[in-house]
Amino acid sequence: MSxxxxxxxxxxxxxxxxxxxxxMLVPCSLSAWSEVAFAFENDACLECHGSxxxxxxxxxxxxxxxxxxxxxxxVYKGELTLYVDYEKFRSTVHRDLSCIDCHNDIEDIPxxxxxxxxxxxxxxxxxxxxxxKSKHATVSQxxxxxxxxxxATTSFxxxxxxxxxxxxxxxxxxxxxxWLPQRELHFQYLECTVCHSPEAAKGLFFHLxxxxxxxxxxxxxxxxxxxxxxGYNGDVAKAIDRDGNGIVAVHEINRFIxxxxxxxxxxxxLEEEVLVLRPYHNFTDEAxxxxxxxxxxxxxxxxxxxxxxxxxxxxxxxRTVKMDKDIxxxxxxxxxxxxxxxxxxxQSGVECIDCHADLTILREGEEFQVKELKxxxxxxxxxxxxxxxxxxxxxxxxxxxxxxxxxxHSSVPFKELNIEQRKAICTKCxxxxxxxxxxxxxDLHFKSLECTMCHAPQAEKGIIFFLQKVDKGERAERLExxxxxxxxxxxxxxxxxxxxxxxxxxxxDREVLSFLNVLKEKAPQQAIELGxxxxxxxxxxxxxDKGTTAKDCxxxxxSRAEFxxxxxxxxxxxxxxxxxxPMDKSILAGIHTIPVTSDFYLLGESRISKRDIADLMFxxxxxxxxxxxxxxxxxxxxxxxxxxxxGGIRFITIGLRRQRRKK
Amino acid sequence: MVRRKKxxxxxxxxxxxxxxxPLMVRLWHWIHALxxxxxxxxxxxxxxxxLVGWFGSFRSAVxxxxxxxxxxxxxxxxxxxxYAVTRGLVKQYVxxxxxxxIGIPTQSxxxxxxxxxxxxxxxxxxxxxxxxxxxxxxxxxxMFVLVxxxxxxxxxxxxxxxxxxxxEALGGVRVIDAFHIILAYMVAAFLIAHIxxxxxGHTFFSHFKAMIVGHEDKEAKH
Lengths: 663, 222
Description:
Order of helices and strands of chain B: HHHHHHHHH
Number of helices of chain B: 9
Structural class of chain B: mainly alpha
Shape of chain A: elongated
Distance between the termini of chain A: 189 Å
Helix content of chain B: 55-70%
Radius of gyration of chain A: 41 Å
Largest sheet of chain B: none
Largest sheet of chain A: 6 strands, mixed
Oligomer: heterodimer
Shape of chain B: globular
């Protein structure tokens, strides 16, 4: 009994122990089982779906492999769902997911014949939310995988523009775009959703390009750029972004392009395209939206906020690097019309048709006319500029025509451009840092002069004067009309009249100085003076490069300098404009009374220069044997001079001699 | 000779009527003067035919210039011969060291300063020593350098073909011509100074008169 009891007690202990052990083991073994089942699952799936043989099977054969779903009809699906190219799958964006992560209604293998719809919203909730409201979903009832093969899709960022368009072109043709002006250009630079998805975030992307023998541009591949990445671990981005701040500056990309050119890459450059950064899945074909050109053709177009450089990678994909937004100013910009009416062309009443002279109507109807745009003809109005330009180095060497430098849709009158704006026209293409090493006081020259002061010898130049206030830090600030009125303590002074007292339309130095004195008397605590600048008054489009003419300092630093011929006083007007009055040259001679002398010190008017000596030698040679006469006449003049001087003194001293004789 | 001795005697007797410039010298001088003036004028027409046309055509100006040139050549020989014979060439024309150390400074001070105050001339010309140091040096330069050079270059230019070899040896027509023209201008300049300096005698015209009649009237002034 006791033995039996003992046995019983021992038995219950054992059973408790096993029960506990079992309870503890179950989750462990379960988890171990599920892990095994997981790994097994992928392989198990691929056992059938990993081979394209499945596509060859008959319906009956396939049904034998699954658990038939009697309540549903037999459905034969195409290659998209039944065959998975696992090698391809492993390079997709979904590569880290297992089959049952998406096909989560599979509990066992073989699985039931009909599986439920994969719910992409598990991961892509936001996109599905957008998509559900779209015409794709509500009207045509298309499903995600009809556009995107989840077993083969790569990251959207890595898709090229053409690949992105390919998604849409699976179903849509290009037929509906006959209304679109410059259709080919639009197709070349844009992907469909730039227009068809107004809400999508867009950016301006640049590619490094080269030119083929047929003159067509193509994107440079990683292999073609590889040699330039030596010393940067094969990283193109590092080779370009030298300072490593993650933003490619204009000078950095310019330097890299120059390097490509040096190494013989044919016509390297940048080509831009507008791409969608983050797609928005509510696509539209509403005419009023997508046919609105001003979605892009305005200065504030959304893609200008994101400027990127797309660089090829070893793997064949793309890498995107941020780019300095200044690059936008350095490329021919996308035509915009929002502020056209404020430009010199718009203000002068130049209509589109005036420049786009060969504009022809392609199609009418659909609430608008479709016109074909060809290259506008600037010479209709600017014939003289065009003639001059055609002789220039620009026209001969580069293919740039007017628009390379000037955007006709945003031009402001040349007179109104300040030096920085004028320089910007040239620095779009030219880097002033290059090629000016020889120039003494380089920064000072750059600060005070526009490029064409030196590089357009035929341009009309002049000196402009204006009123300015100098603070204690020697910073000069130009006086506006209001400032002068306040200084004069007058409500609405007629400044031209106050300056030009005799009203002859010409300012003498006395008039200017007395006006300055009036200002000084009224505001003795302020340092008011005449500011001075040398400016191009009328541009010439025949530019010179670094030839001898541009390096000739005496073009400016001599009394013969061309800009001395036009002296102009700029008088501010109440409306914010500027009235100009010609000024007497004597202001320069009398300039010591005005504290602008220091600005003129560099002009070194009276110094003899190398050029003067060269000029002199030229004259000497030109005179040739006529020197004999010059010297001869000097002899005779010396003889006459002696006679005149000696005779003169003799005549004056007659009295002296007479007195002496008397004594 | 007899007459001349007699003349001198008379002058010495009179004391104030010494013949300074013998007839031969005066004759030479005025032939020379006329020829030189005409040479300058014809030369001017040859140099600036578009401006000057006093002697007819260019050709006639050249012919006249050539004739005058030879006249000067013979006149120069006359001068040289006369002084060579009378042995006055060195004495009258060649400056001595004293002329440079004393004569020229003294004479310069006189010409450029003291003359205005009416100081007496530091040098009184005599028949044996007609020229003061400055004159002596200048005339030496003119009669021994300038005029001979002008005559030589002039003769060479007169017949380029004949003297072809010599002209080439001297550096070509251009060089000879350059010398001739520069010297001509110097002659013209000298002419101006010469005429003016001739007014610096005791009276304004005393030197002119002496060059015509042979002697100066010293008493007239003092």
